[in-house]
Amino acid sequence: MSTPTRTPHLARFGPDDLPDLTGRRVVVTGANSGIGFHAAKAFAAHGAHVTLACRNLDSAREAQGRLTGDTEVAELDLASQESVRAFAQAWQGPLDLLVANAGVMTPPRYRETADGHELQFGTNHLGHFALTGRLLPRLLEAEAPRVVAVSSIAHHRGDDSVLEGNPGATYSSNKAYGNSKLANLLFAHELQRRATAAGSRLTVTACHPGVSNTGLVTSPDGLGSLPGVKQLAPLVMPLVVQSSRAGANPTLWASTYAAPGSYTGPTGLMESRGRLGEAKQSRWARDAGLAARLWEVSVGLTGVSPELG
């Protein structure tokens, strides 16, 4: 990847400001729609080889058909640790950038992954934790590897109960989603701390998209399972929130120019939209002790222990 002569201004950053990514290999989870799609589109347009890592291969191939550049589709179901293992085992050669983007948002009723974890915690956090851990050897083969965790302003709903993994007995869809996105932030920070301590060249950043018009709302795994939501949301959402293309800008910044350990998001209207800047974090997100404990819990639940040595 060539190095630009000047870093773009964060507040005015957009897809056209990406550097030349020729020769870079990129994995974007959930790249078949929304923010993941627009991130993949921008990466490919700037020369990267982009893998759309998705659960629904038909949807991923349809999305690939709307992209230009060097792309491929690979099956990945983050709600299945076996699928995560298979994806990582199939990857050959260095990996420059892993964008942990895919997710499930607020299913109204308690649901579990194939491995018996609450769906949001198991998909949004444990799936990406295990994927990152299993791909670390390939990331560390790259010259300047980077991992990006896509969190949410909803992480402010989370607290230290994140360690419990959203048990069914106390399930609340919004609280569970908040805990899963808090987990994304805690994992990013802990991975960066460990990379720094190990003297690794790995960079880990985090971001959030504000409030954007994505498929999370209409997904049958989330609010889309409620009567009328799937029909009404596409009509209402474009009128009240920013586009998914705009929502991808924090991901693009975090994937290229953002400093290690940073957290980027929109700064307008309570961080729901607008120019990019440093995003606000809850006190729990800044709790290094909680992050370390979540790491150990995650190792126990997935059997994956990310190694940076």
Commentary on this structure:
The protein is α/β, with parallel strands linked by helices and 309 residues long. The chain has one domain: NAD(P)-binding Rossmann-like Domain (Rossmann fold), CATH 3.40.50. The chain is 37% helix and 15% strand. It has helices spanning 34-45, 57-64, 81-90, 119-139, 173-197, 229-240, 244-247, 249-254, 288-302, and strands spanning 25-29, 49-54, 70-75, 97-100, 146-150, 203-207, 212-213, 242-243, 263-268, 273-278. An 8-stranded mixed beta sheet has the order 3-2-1-4-5-6-9-10, with helices on both faces. α3 (81-90) packs parallel to α4 and α4 (119-139) runs parallel beside α5 (173-197). The longest helix is centred in the middle third of the chain and has 25 residues, at 173-197.
Keywords:
309 residues, alpha/beta, Rossmann fold, 8-stranded mixed β-sheet, two-stranded parallel sheet, 9 helices, 37% helix, disordered N terminus
Write the layout of secondary structure elements.
Elements: E1 25-29, H1 34-45, E2 49-54, H2 57-64, E3 70-75, H3 81-90, E4 97-100, H4 119-139, E5 146-150, H5 173-197, E6 203-207, E7 212-213, H6 229-240, E8 242-243, H7 244-247, H8 249-254, E9 263-268, E10 273-278, H9 288-302
Parallel strand pairs: 1-2, 1-4, 2-3, 4-5, 5-6, 6-9, 7-8
Antiparallel strand pairs: 9-10
Helix pairs in contact: 3-4, 4-5, 4-9, 5-9
Using DSSP, what is the number of strands?
10
Unreliable residue stretches: 1-5, 228-233, 235-240
Number of helical runs? 9
Largest sheet: 8 strands, mixed
Name the average pLDDT: 92
CATH topology: Rossmann fold
Structural class: alpha/beta
CA-CA gap between termini:
25 Å
* Physical arrangement of strands within the biggest beta sheet: 3-2-1-4-5-6-9-10
Give the oligomeric state.
single chain
What is the assigned CATH homologous superfamily? NAD(P)-binding Rossmann-like Domain
User: Any idea of the CATH class?
Assistant: Alpha Beta
H-E string = EHEHEHEHEHEEHEHHEEH
- Whole-number count of domains: 1
- The value of Rg in angstroms is 18 Å
Q: Give the overall shape.
A: globular
Helix content estimate:
25-40%
Strand content: 15-25%
Examine the secondary-structure arrangement and name the CATH architecture. Answer: 3-Layer(aba) Sandwich
Protein name: NADP-dependent 3-hydroxy acid dehydrogenase YdfG
InterPro entries: NAD(P)-bd_dom_sf, SDR_fam
Family: Belongs to the short-chain dehydrogenases/reductases (SDR) family.
GO molecular function, one term: oxidoreductase activity
